[in-house]
Design brief:
Length: 126
């Protein structure tokens, strides 16, 4: 499974588990499950980073799709040390595919939030 497809599948899993906490992990790729469990170990820190970079907004107001995308992108930035440009670009592509309306507001919002997160981590100009 290539990295792009892996991101999409893990975000689907994160979203799905937010909706149905009792959902079984059977049938998922073992690497995906391993990454998901590691992601869960850091969820509180990820949410804190996200919350600190939201302006005039709270994490509880984010829809579940955007929250799943932003959480995983933040996880990649902080714990996987992925290239910030790639992480942001892939997150925005997933936003366009799953969350964006015709007005591009979700994409703009997520882009701004991810850039704020990158800046807060000491990385500039993603």
């Amino acid at each position: 499974m290539n990295r792009e497809l892996f991101r999409e599948e893990i975000i689907k899993l994160i979203y799905s588990k937010m909706i149905n906490k009792d959902q079984e992990l059977e049938g998922y790729d073992s690497d995906l499950i391993k990454t998901y469990h590691d992601f869960l170990n850091h969820i509180e820190e990820l949410d804190e980073i996200i919350d600190q970079n939201l302006f005039d907004w709270s994490i509880t107001r984010l829809n579940y799709v955007d929250l799943a995308i932003i959480r995983y992108a933040t996880y990649e930035l902080v714990y996987l040390n992925q290239a910030k440009e790639i992480v942001i670009n892939e997150a925005l592509e997933l936003t366009k595919k799953y969350s964006n309306l015709e007005d591009d507001q979700a994409k703009k919002f997520n882009n701004r939030l991810l850039q704020n997160i990158v800046d807060s981590l000491g990385e500039k100009d993603a």
